[in-house]
Amino acid sequence: MRLSIFLGLLLSLMACANFEKATRPHAFFERVWTKDLDAPEYGEGNLAVALNSPLALAKQNLILVGNASGHMQAWQLASGKMQWQQTDQATQLTAPLLSPDAKLVIYGTAQGRVNARDVKSGELRYTINLGSPIIAPGKIDHGRIFFQLGNHQLMCLDALTGKILWSYKRAVPYFLTLQKAANPIVFDGKVLVGEADGTLVALRLEDGSLLWEAKLAVGGRFVDVDVNPYVVKGTVFAAATGGDLQKLDLKTGKMLARAEFSPAVTPLAWQGDRLAATRDGRLVVYADNLAIKRQATVTTQAITALAIWKAHAIVATDDGFIKAYDLKDFKLKGSFHLGHDYSTVLGDLAVTDKYLAVLSSRYHLYVFQ
Fold first, then answer.
1. DSSP β-ladder status, 282-286 and 153-158
2. Domains of the chain: total
3. Share of the chain above pLDDT 70, in %
4. Among the four residues 77, 81, 125, 219, which has the most C-beta atoms within 10 Å?
5. What DSSP letter does each residue of 1-47 carry, written as one string?
6. Is 24 a residue whose pLDDT tops 60?
7. Range of the domain at 337
């Protein structure tokens, strides 16, 4: 009897020790608070996976995020105290966006609705049904909000009222796509948007009419443009899934150059250059002509998210870690395990000057300082 009790206690202590080892952060990641966002118990046929991202607002001292039960939640950034929670009766909520007047938080649902709520109280200001799942967070620019839908339609709405201004739809067979989408960008009167057939299109901002299109991938299947395009000095940079980064003329869409790497996530601006995380585990600093200035292989795992915080590259990997690398020499400065080998980050990392917010695929929200 005593032996069985001893063995039971020993096993319990070992389990606790393993958990502590898995979740103990490096000194770089000082955890402020953590929340379990009502993720259901995992079981056969019941695997809730967080695909969305948090929005961190330093001025409002808030972090906004959708939970596993279809609620939009606002937490106080510094303390982790809930400020408000509102139900949307949805299975997935996109990352929230802040309206141009900073009074509304706007987001989409897997049921095709766009909801706008008061940032301070969570009260609903407007809602509109777009008729198809909203599969990307969206983009606010020039007082308009752009959403990509699951039926390969781009919707342009007035950000303050929700009024539909125009739409653009592309014919893409559903069995040829990953159902992923990049966020569009607006520049020089054009809306640049990546499509599920591996094409980058330029639309007129005023009415959504097609100006040009450029094929980024030669394959016909699973070539979604899921890396956000960006513009530098009259050129646009974009990539399709698994494809190399390309540089194109903003006026015509003609390809000007091709990089020797494939970005896993959207590259970030850093001290006049760009930082990319590649699909083969490299961090790459490159110039606007796509010439690589320096690079290093930092992981053998797939990189799923990238941010720059406190002069460090923060990456999430598919084995459940977030890691910090010094941008001067790419040396590892800290790591934190998300608590489970099958946890990862499938959305974006949210940063302010002081805080880093991470939503794991298991709906655990971590805030670090």
1. unpaired
2. 1
3. 87
4. 77
5. -HHHHHHHHHHHHHHHHHHHHHHPPPTTS-EEEEEE--PPPPBTTB-
6. no
7. 273-369
Q: Which of 142, 92, 141 is nearest to 113 (CA)?
A: 92
Q: Is 15 part of a structural domain of the chain?
A: no
Q: Please identify which residue in the block is written with the tokens 């939970």.
A: 67
- In a domain, residue 158? The reply is no
| Block residue for tokens 């599920």 | 196
Whether residue 359 lies inside any domain: the answer is yes
pLDDT in tens, 32-63: 999 998 755 555 555 678 889 999 999 999 99
CB 113 within 8 A of CB 101: no
Tokens (6 digits) for 220? 């016909």
Q: Identify which of 135, 44, 141 has the alpha carbon closest to the alpha carbon of residue 92.
A: 135
Tell me the DSSP string of 291-355: -EEEEEE--SSPEEEEEEETTEEEEEETTSEEEEEETTT--EEEEEE-SSTT----S--EE-SS-
- Sheet with 153-158, edge to edge strand ranges: 139-141, 144-148, 153-158, 164-169
Question: Tens of pLDDT along 73-108?
Answer: 999 999 999 999 999 878 778 999 999 999 999 999
Question: In the sheet where 31-36 sits, what is the strand order?
Answer: 31-36, 364-368, 356-359, 350-351
- As a whole number, the mean pLDDT across the chain is 87
**C-alpha span between 20 and 120 (Å, rounded):** 36
In a domain, 278, yes or no: yes
